[in-house]
Specification:
Elements lengths: L12 E5 L4 H12 L3 E6 L2 H13 L4 E5 L5 H15 L4 E4 L15 H28 L3 E6 L12 H21 L4 E8 L5 H4 L7 H13 L13 H8 L10 E4 L14
Helix pairs in contact: 1-2, 1-8, 3-4, 4-5
């Protein structure tokens, strides 16, 4: 028998990085609707305050915190701020990520490498470490990393991003392995194409017609024939954050619209 209450986040405190837009915003609102109080973190306070107001609008507590989780000093301050306000952290969603440029492996320089790896991998590791220490002291918790289908199949000129997201898969397994005795479950989702600023940035320099053509080509790569909206990631997030996934750890859920399976030939497609 399915008990819907197992999906409840009532009484939980969640921290969502990259929480001002896209998947982060959708997750923060989804968690609030499931009963959690939510801390949203990113680099721009006005955007965070808008999301915090939306969270309060569904009757939950919200705290916007300006932080760049690619910086070690910001990580410590972020965790201290959340614990000072709410006393604990039950759920961490490592959603903040970047991919500022697409470049050939022959042209990538150290600055681009560092900008991506520091946020997408190093920052996720050390924020998870800091939050896990809090979770250990308070009886457990849930960590959810946001990887990508690029971890399984790299895009042309997207090497560093793919490497960072593949690293998240092993980080998820390694942390799950060591943190299980403390009742800390660590899992990940790997989205396919989602309509976010990160996805749309690849086309900002192109003429309108070329942008439409490239989006159409991307849609044809998915079995479900559309680019996802951020809300379509929330179901997997709530599952992993809630007691519904009590026997799941070290795993990655692909939410990719069938991209990795490739397009299915059908009449009229």
């Amino acid at each position: 028998m399915v008990n819907p209450s197992r999906f409840s986040l009532e009484g939980k405190v969640a921290l969502v990085t990259g929480g001002s837009r896209g998947i982060g915003r959708a997750t923060a609102l989804g968690f609030a609707e499931a009963g959690a109080d939510v801390v949203v973190a990113s680099r721009k306070l006005p955007d965070l305050e808008k999301v915090a107001d939306e969270i309060r609008g569904v009757g939950r507590k919200a705290l916007p915190v300006v932080a760049n989780v690619g910086r070690m000093d910001d990580i410590g301050r972020l965790v201290e701020t959340v614990v000072a306000e709410f006393g604990t952290i039950d759920i961490l969603v490592n959603n903040a990520g970047t991919n500022p440029a697409m470049a050939s492996v022959l042209d990538i320089d150290e600055r681009l490498w560092d900008s991506i790896i520091n946020l997408n991998l190093k920052g996720v590791y050390f924020l998870s470490q800091a939050v896990a220490r809090v979770m250990k002291d308070h009886g457990g918790g849930r960590i959810i990393n946001v990887s990508s289908v690029d971890a399984y199949k790299p895009e042309y000129h997207g090497a560093i991003y793919a490497i960072s997201k593949a690293g998240l898969l092993m980080m998820t397994k390694s942390m799950a392995f060591e943190l299980a005795p403390h009742d800390i479950r660590v899992n990940a989702i790997a989205p396919g194409p989602v309509s976010t600023n990160l996805l749309n940035s690849r086309w900002f320099h192109l003429p309108e017609e070329e942008t439409k053509a490239q989006k159409a080509a991307l849609v044809k790569m998915t079995l479900l024939r559309h680019i996802a909206e951020p809300d379509e990631m929330v179901g997997a997030m709530i599952y992993l954050a809630s007691d519904a996934s009590s026997y799941t750890t070290g795993e990655t859920i692909l939410v990719d619209g069938g991209v990795l399976l490739g397009p299915m030939p059908r009449a009229g497609w």
